[in-house]
Amino acid sequence: MRPDTSRRPFAQGVSTRRPPPSTNIHGAFTQPLRPCARLWGEALLLDILTLLAFWSAAPAAPPPAALGPELAAIRAAARDQGNRIWPGFGEAPFGLLLLEPGGETLLCRPEAPPGFSDAGRDAATGCPRFVRPRGALPGNWLAAMPLFGPPATIVMGTPAATGLTGPRWRSTVLHEHVHQWQAALPDYYARVAALDLAGGDETGMWMLNFAFPYADPAAAGAHAAASRALAAALAARGTPAFRARLADYLGARRAFAAAAGARNWRYFEFQLWQEGVARWTEIAISRLWPDPAMRAEADAYEREILAALGAPDLAGQQRVAVYPMGAGEAMLLEACGPRWRALYPAVLSLGPLFETCGA
């Protein structure tokens, strides 16, 4: 989730019009959950029961007329363009809670959670529609979280409340839907647990707060070398120098892994797989979108990622560094051909997928 509406440069983790991905979470828990639910995405330890106590008496309002078609277009893109990239992407759970000034609207979940009223079907999406009065959830949230229990629900403020342009808002919804799709992959929770990274944490906060040695000079230096080598490899796509630059990057990647240490690298690899590929998927789907504004958004976003890779700052960015590096690795894999995508659902790291490059 991204509850912050500040717009800082991508060199600090985000584009100038996107809330920081470092605040992105994919879980909110008020009590111990089943083992699989404890591992949902990046958890923020919120007391949802406390939030529920603050629902206002304001009547629930219907979605603005402009947003119904927006949501329908996003779902259509997930089905039509998204399925071309990830088979089954458009069929993954797509529940969405829209936070508006006058109320909250829950779409595309089969049943109403407690506190919601049935409002029939949404005309644009064709989904079940439930409403409730506006509560205490911040109106600028951008999240995928099991607010009503699994499967996760996307929790989104309106474009106006989040400060995002229309294309960036659509792209962000797609990013959160990637996390819904990832969590629906076979044995996702069991495989995450097998990484043995939680250290006894049952809230999921370890995904945000893992003690990776971001400020360690050796790790930061190795990350900087790898990030710049990745930028160079991406710049060489489609040229005779590509294979040599790819080999340079893979060598720098191995050096970064060695500097980080085995357990720390396991965490970083998982974040590259989860968050970096979600970022890449935003770009890939937007590039296939019929709307030229979305295609322009994809081009702008790729430029931001390449700029971030060329100006690494692990100590400053900390966990945010996984977004451009993971997206860059997905771009590199795609330059070798699409076969990596068929293998992606069965792993939780991108390293083994570089075998598809003949490396």
| Portion in beta strands | 5-15%
Rounded radius of gyration (Å): 20 Å
Strand order of the largest sheet: 5-6-4-3-8-7
How many DSSP E strands?
Answer: 8
Secondary-structure-based class equals alpha/beta
Largest sheet: 6 strands, mixed
Judging from the principal axes of the Cα atoms, what is the shape? globular
Give the termini distance in whole angstroms. 35 Å
Low-confidence stretches: 1-64
H and E order: EHEHHHEEEEEEHHHHHHHHHHH
Lay out the secondary structure:
Layout: E1 27-28, H1 35-38, E2 43-44, H2 48-52, H3 67-80, H4 82-85, E3 96-100, E4 103-107, E5 117-121, E6 128-132, E7 142-145, E8 153-157, H5 159-162, H6 166-183, H7 188-194, H8 206-209, H9 217-235, H10 242-260, H11 262-288, H12 292-310, H13 314-317, H14 322-335, H15 339-343
Parallel strand pairs: 1-2, 3-8
Antiparallel strand pairs: 3-4, 4-6, 5-6, 7-8
Helix pairs in contact: 3-6, 6-11, 9-10, 9-12, 9-14, 10-11, 11-12, 11-14, 12-14
Summarize the structure.
This protein is of the alpha/beta class. It has helices at residues 35-38, 48-52, 67-80, 82-85, 159-162, 166-183, 188-194, 206-209, 217-235, 242-260, 262-288, 292-310, 314-317, 322-335, 339-343, and strands spanning 27-28, 43-44, 96-100, 103-107, 117-121, 128-132, 142-145, 153-157. Strand 1, helix 1 and strand 2 form a beta-alpha-beta unit.
